[in-house]
Write a structure and sequence with these properties.
three-stranded antiparallel sheet; 3 strands; single chain; 9 helices; mainly alpha; 68% helix; 240 residues; globular
């Protein structure tokens, strides 16, 4: 994108394209801002907006066929969430992931995802069959994407697997807490390597969850998360 100040005083621009994905009656300012945020987030995750790239409010608004007001609100929200950063007197840019960012993310994610697997296994032991079916579908999607060398689709499948485990855990507070990490995790997963043995680790987690073995599920998840951390640091920073 061109070097240009992002936020100015104007709010004009083209209106929202008709026939969007929002539900009927959800075209107010808050919903438009939320749609703009989701669209910008997706572009960060799939790296159409690269790390360090400056985002020009007017150009983003034109790309999304939105006015500049909801886009400006979306960019401000993403600054607050840490995915964008302010540039002195010159707008915003996509924040670069630093070593410490990855460390901090895994420090928070590890205990949550381990507990999610433990609770999911207990749910399976109590008779939940819908959750395991969703996990199985995500595993199949990941294998299919890997066989076709479709990295973006594989990342989406791995993300869906972890989100399925959290949903299966049945703890609304855990779900809400994990939602706050969702986009950072998707961004990280999209940037790192995705070795085949990590798909095998997901399959191992799945087996223990379906068997209702809470502690085996937790242990296999802990191993996976720590291996995932090592892969991420090696992929991004050459850490050994």
């Amino acid at each position: 994108m061109r070097a240009e100040q992002v936020a100015d005083g104007s709010g004009g621009g083209p209106g929202v394209r008709a026939g969007g994905s929002g539900a009927p009656g959800t075209t107010g300012p808050a919903s438009l801002s939320a749609r703009a945020r989701e669209a910008v987030l997706q572009r960060i995750v799939d790296r159409r907006y690269a790390q360090g790239a400056r985002l020009v409010e007017r150009e983003v608004a034109e790309e999304l066929s939105m006015s500049r007001v909801p886009v400006r609100e979306a960019l401000r929200a993403l600054v607050a969430e840490g995915l964008l950063e302010l540039l002195p007197h010159s707008g915003v840019r996509v924040r670069r992931l630093e070593y410490a960012d990855v460390e901090h993310l895994y420090e928070v994610w590890e205990p949550l995802v381990v507990q999610a697997s433990r609770l999911a296994a207990r749910a399976a032991a109590a008779g939940d069959t819908r959750g395991p079916a969703g996990l199985r579908a995500a595993l199949r999607q990941a294998e299919s994407a890997a066989a076709s060398d479709e990295g973006t689709r594989e990342v989406a499948a791995h993300t869906a697997f972890h989100e399925g485990v959290v949903a299966m855990a049945g703890n609304p507070l855990l779900v809400r807490t994990m939602e706050q990490l969702s986009w950072q995790l998707r961004l990280l997963f999209g940037m790192r390597e995705e070795p085949a043995h990590m798909r095998a680790q997901h399959a191992e987690m799945y087996r223990h969850i379906c068997a209702g073995d809470a502690e085996a599920a937790a242990a296999s998840t802990l191993l996976h998360v720590r291996d995932s951390r090592a892969v991420a640091l090696r992929s991004l920073f050459g850490d050994t």
